[in-house]
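Researcher: Last one for today. Full complex below.
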Amino acid sequence: MAARITHATTHDIRFPTSRSLDGSDAMNEAPDYSAAYVILHVDNGPDGHGMTFTIGRGNELCCAAIDAVAKLIVGRDVEGLFADMGATWRLVTGDSHLRWTGPEKGVIHLAAAAIMNALWDMYGKVAGKPVWQLISEMSPEDMASLVDWRYLADALPPEEAIERLQDKAEGRAERTADLLTNGYPAYTTSAGWLGYSDDKIRALVSDALGQGWTHFKMKVGANLDDDCRRAGIIRDEIGPARYLMMDANQVWGVEQAIANMGRLADYAPYWIEEPTSPDDILGHARIARAVAPIKVATGEHCHNAVMFKQLMQAQALEIVQVDSCRLAGPNELLAVMLMADKFGLPVCPHAGGVGLCELIQHMSFVDYIAVSATHDNRVLEFVDHLHEHFLVPVTTRNGRYIPPSAPGFSVEMNEDSLEKYRYPDGAIWT
Amino acid sequence: MAARITHATTHDIRFPTSRSLDGSDAMNEAPDYSAAYVILHVDNGPDGHGMTFTIGRGNELCCAAIDAVAKLIVGRDVEGLFADMGATWRLVTGDSHLRWTGPEKGVIHLAAAAIMNALWDMYGKVAGKPVWQLISEMSPEDMASLVDWRYLADALPPEEAIERLQDKAEGRAERTADLLTNGYPAYTTSAGWLGYSDDKIRALVSDALGQGWTHFKMKVGANLDDDCRRAGIIRDEIGPARYLMMDANQVWGVEQAIANMGRLADYAPYWIEEPTSPDDILGHARIARAVAPIKVATGEHCHNAVMFKQLMQAQALEIVQVDSCRLAGPNELLAVMLMADKFGLPVCPHAGGVGLCELIQHMSFVDYIAVSATHDNRVLEFVDHLHEHFLVPVTTRNGRYIPPSAPGFSVEMNEDSLEKYRYPDGAIWT
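Model: Here's the assembly. Have a good evening.
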């Protein structure tokens, strides 16, 4: 019997993380990690759960935008939507009126992300597979058909994308087996939040070393002397061989980024993340040339694949930090991963927040199995917050992500959490 | 007695323009021109009216975002806000939670535009001056202080901006007098909408010629043969000496834009507007090199000054089409105008829609009086729709804009219009 999407319900879910300064950085001093959460209800078969991520105020705008975007798919037959997920992506992002309020950026694109994530969750559940498996089993042609090539073909023609996928098709089974056994490399940001005391940082880094982590990220950008002191503490703890990454969260101008990294270079950072405005492709390119061999990383606020295309074309980034809720779901993530493969750049996704780890892991597994076919120089961000709210929380072992086997996108939250953290009338807020 | 902002009211105002296909183009086939309109109420003195512009669905999202942004200024003393409008801009755009849903783009930035437009309207009314006069009478230092330089100083340091403004300060009085007597050059888009028949186009162009217009814009991008036929009709009517501009409204990929302009070059267009994704700076640069001497114009969807900076740095645009509702008000428009002056590029703003002409004229006058000090090669868009809804509608004479003398930003709508076109319960919608 055919299934049809009957309606969508949105849920404004906010966690009061600002109370403990988890997630504090130079730009975002007191975030309340939040999910604009959507359930797509069907008349037959599993519902789809999806979300986009914000840091508190404004989450209601994303919920309202999800309501607007959901109207484009309510009443549709799910088989038809799943049969051509490329067309479905264009449907969800292509309404000319809604597009005007972006286009393909900001609140309306965050809403498209939530809807696409929910559709893929439903598709995985219908197929009885986790999303990483569903996508990585697709033929190269089907995979390429997920992407909207209109604005990307000048950098990577779809025919070339298919050829590249075909070249790597052979080892898929071995890589899948490797992943299930050994997991996918990760790094931790749990220790380096700006709001933490020196003692707390030292203790957290020490703990993380004990758990097998080898890559550590810290926040910089509020005060350069403080940044140097905190970098010194972490470098002391982790020694010279492990990796220290720095994240400025966009607070610097171009010249200032170059000057400040001159001092922070003393602590041998592996990368500097978001050194300036996420929109400043040419600025990132200048910074990249100036701070080499420190690598420039960006992407959590890179709003669409067209921006990633240019960051690559301009040699402005060396670490591709896609985000599962900023880009509009697996289709657009795949577009960026295919381009990154062509440009020879590692995809090291942004995660953390709430739900971001659960979602993005699927796409790193797809990258390894089917796209780049390697995890050399790749690390997936891990932050140990808020996983307990999900039915299928991420699993890490020895600093590596272990793939989930449950069907869907791992993004479904416990009903209790949806109730308790609902803003403004859930128990935690009243 | 001090005045304080007591509350904001938002108004979802939509005009059913899709019924006549006014405003139709290849991307936006049936727009309903809409205003997310805000009134900032004070306890003493004039209220401030402002708006951002959308094309229908999604206007409610901008209204909701305006409500969220307004909270940042409700309760504030207006004198304090007006005393440092640069700080006020950072206040309105700088809330870290709301910023996450942009940053500085999409729905949240459109809302910031509405709020800033309303604040400047109020400021003009308090000062008893139209906004163009208020700003163009500021000292170079005060004018430069309106701009947030953090991400722009690498292209134009504020000290250099001040020097450039000082160099042009002397002729301000003469240029103001010239403007009041002779007006500011404009062009018309009223004839070239995609949904119009050939006969209607011919008649409208003929009418416009009679009214003294010398620049004509047409929409392209739906079907190349049709585009050529319609271009031929307009070129026939206007002759070889007048200007024909083309607007593709983002429907082409980079290669496709270059190929299609190869054929459309037969009709000697002056510029091609929005040939591809508004985010594709490097794509525009490639197109600009390929289609020269046809000029590349873009900006109505260019979401912030950081993007304009790069379009200029990359030599990707030759006509700077700022929009009063896409950029966050006069502060950010001024930033782009100052950079355009440095890069030697003409600012020819986007207008049309509803309210865009009323707002943007002020900034073209500022550009002429105080920034570029010229209107050579500048034309301001004019579309003859929906002006009747404003208390102080734009005035044109012989194809030129005549500056308004009424205090404020010319954006205040008739109460009857606010009532009748309110969505979804105004008379026009029920």
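DSSP finds 17 helices and twelve strands in chain B. The first helix of chain B runs from residue 59 to 70.
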